[in-house]
Amino acid sequence: MRSFLGRDILSLKDFEREEFFHVFEVADHLAPHARDRRNGDLLREKTLVTAFYQPSTRTRLATEGAMHRLGGHVCGFSDAKMTRAGDFYQESIKDTVHMLEFYGDVIAMRHFQQGAPAEAARWASVPVINCGDGWGEHPTQVLTDLYTIWHEKGTLDGLAVLCVGDMRMRTMHSILYAMSQFDMEALIVCPPEMSLLPEFKSELDARSVSYREVESVDKCIAEADVIYMEPVVQADYTKGRDERGGEVATTPEAYRVTRQLLRDKAKSDSIVLHSLPRMDELPVDVDDTHHARYWIEAYNGVVMRMALLALVLGGVE
Ligand code: CP
Known about the structure:
Blueprint: H1 17-35, E1 47-52, H2 58-69, E2 73-77, H3 93-103, E3 106-111, H4 116-123, E4 128-133, H5 139-153, E5 159-164, H6 170-178, E6 184-189, H7 198-206, E7 210-213, E8 226-229, H8 259-265, E9 271-274, H9 294-312
Parallel strand pairs: 1-2, 1-3, 3-4, 5-6, 5-8, 6-7, 8-9
């Protein structure tokens, strides 16, 4: 297995099966810091720099929280408008990263341009973690999601995963790449204008990812062990900021997971994941069902980021 020390975490395309399980084991090892709310000192000599060019609640704060849990230090920005990249100068990724690498030992970046973290990694002498890049990928979220599934179901193999939402989304890309390493089948449900792009389908075929496109949640929820959700009413991820207009669309029934649908058609042991934030595709009354796992998924977000930071910074092997 390749070492994680100094490694960029940019994509799940190149993640190998044993690497997923190694990250999960490290996450289990570090989890007590989060579970017991007890900060340690594993990364006391290290500093995380967060460079968020797009809004975030979970990813930035879970990553920063993870660094604090391990006794490390944090600096960074959560609004590029307050930096020289977001003013008159529009400072380039290259020039910005040549500064950030002096301020810390790892850079966690979210950007509205697909490939921006990879561009940063070309110039940075410290590891870069992709915290979501445009319509590209969201590897730390999906590592969190797979870790959650592994814990909840005891395995990743032999599972049918219903993926419902906008298939252009970065989480959908990362999870479908990851599925190439496991015996999983994806059931894909999305509006036609948000379907898997032909070039992405070719990549999935080349990686022998097993997937079936289905018209509606209703038609395949009975087969699903995991229901993996994203909105279809959502922001444009190529924008730095996308504020809501006056009119907000509603989600068509075909792409919603309701309490009634879960009761009437879902497997009794199926679990619902959603990286959040949600719109009306996942009504709040699902929160009280035994299917809901998105709050434990959010908690696991801290645990997973502790594991990734510890690995790339050499706190653990
Ligand atoms: N799931 C996720 O990426 O959430 P944030 O946009 O709040 O980071």
